[in-house]
Inverse folding.
């Protein structure tokens, strides 16, 4: 079971659409313990990606590179660079491949985690997007190691992303603006963990019907 690398546009469209649909929700969550701009920033970045992808047929790697560059350079806030390196890792790990197998996708997720961990000091448990991304990456790798197919690995990734995202509600923020609130940051979901959950879910949902 593989994903042909030619589906960059389809994969990107799924990501763009989920951010556009959830922009108000993301800003609402960010507004509880942050400055309430996460949905606006993400929507701005992903809508610019849609314009840049217009009329193009990028590979999966090329599509991730365009998303990475746009988020890194053109959106405000701390999340732009973080998602920039996340998608850069995914782009580089799939560069030059004609087809992406589950093993390749596992490497793409690892590269995404490495990218985010390299530029920030956040660890799992600090109430950030890593609380979604790391368990999702691990679940995919564990499912693959257990001998499951690409589709089952993606389902395992989605489940873990959801559980990881929801786990941020009970965490105290250790990084960024929300960390100044200390204990008062508990009881609210993290905005970055939320967008990361939405993006990983959209990614899996776009890939699943395209696997051959
Ligand atoms: Mg914000």
């Amino acid at each position: 079971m593989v994903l042909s690398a030619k589906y960059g546009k389809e994969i990107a469209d799924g990501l763009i659409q989920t951010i556009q649909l959830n922009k108000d929700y993301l800003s609402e969550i960010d507004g509880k313990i942050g400055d309430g701009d996460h949905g606006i920033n993400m929507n701005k970045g992903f809508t610019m990606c849609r314009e840049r992808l217009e009329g193009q047929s990028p590979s999966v790697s090329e599509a991730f590179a365009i998303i990475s560059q746009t988020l890194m350079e053109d959106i405000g806030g701390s999340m732009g660079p973080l998602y920039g390196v996340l998608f850069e890792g995914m782009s580089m790990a799939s560069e030059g491949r004609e087809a992406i197998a589950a093993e390749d996708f596992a490497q793409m997720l690892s590269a995404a985690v490495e990218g985010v961990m390299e530029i920030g000091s956040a660890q799992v448990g600090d109430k950030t997007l890593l609380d979604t991304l790391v368990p999702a990456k691990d679940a995919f790798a564990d499912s693959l190691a257990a001998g499951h197919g690409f589709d089952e690995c993606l389902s395992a990734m989605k489940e873990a992303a959801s559980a990881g995202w929801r786990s941020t509600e009970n965490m105290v923020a250790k990084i960024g603006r929300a960390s100044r609130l200390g204990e008062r940051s508990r009881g609210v979901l993290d905005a970055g963990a939320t967008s990361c959950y939405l993006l990983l879910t959209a990614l899996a949902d776009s890939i699943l019907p395209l696997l051959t």
